[in-house]
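Notes from hallway chat w/ T.B., transcribed later so I don't forget. T.B. wanted the structure written out for a chain they're using in a teaching module, and asked if we could keep both sequence and structure tokens in one place. Agreed to drop them here.
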Amino acid sequence: MSTGVGMSSCCLSGKIHEGVPTGHEETVAGLKTYVAETADKSRAKSVVILTDVFGWQLKNVRLLADNYAKAGFHVYIPDIHQNDSIAAEFLQDVEPPLTVREGLSITQKATKAASVTSVLGPWLIKHREAVTLPLIDGFINAVKYIPGTNKVGVLGFCWGGRYAVLEANSTGKVHGGVDAAYACHPSMISVPADFEPVNKPLSLAFGDKDSLVDQVTVGKIIDTLAVKTELPHEIRIYEDQVHGFTLRGDWSSDKDKKAMDEALQQGVDWFSTYLS
């Protein structure tokens, strides 16, 4: 039996980071796209980022793309939501930090949960898998045809994290799909159903305080992938980190900043190995 893991208010939590993105916008495969280039403009190792519900314009994800570009990857962030991402204001308004959230009353938590449902419910229906997956498949196939591209990886966060897992299954994909995938705290996953077909190198990052994917579920994912003895895969669990920590953690917290830096390095190491 597959266990479905949904979305909750922590998907809408986090911090807006400081800094100015250095990439540019262009249209790729018919989608508005943020592009972060390497110093030598090489596209040999390309990475497609699948965002969370806040989409391609969120400063945090663009700054992260810039960091991957500095590490030697040509990065694309397509507007998979097609100008319909959830407003970034919900980062501050919908869900407080973990320390505050733990002090909320049952009534306060219920009120917040109702607010989240009203925002996420219609959005998730509009951007269901039958609509979203073909967009992602088409974008990745287009990237593979761009001159100078050698290998392509996919990096997903939260809502986009599940699609990174799905892209790690090349069955039925045109031209073999991606060469490697990295999913950070994926949401709305089905375990083991989404992981049993995986046949491309897959790296996963979870926080041990993730309210969407508990440690029992992580254990089931580990067991599902463990039988794939010839498939490169890894799962790293970050202490005291909540859902969304790799993209929307608090830079002012030394512990959170360290976790974000290590998760970035996890992805850089993974793609350096499997996109080379």
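Follow-up for T.B.: The radius of gyration is 18 Å. Might be a good example for the class.
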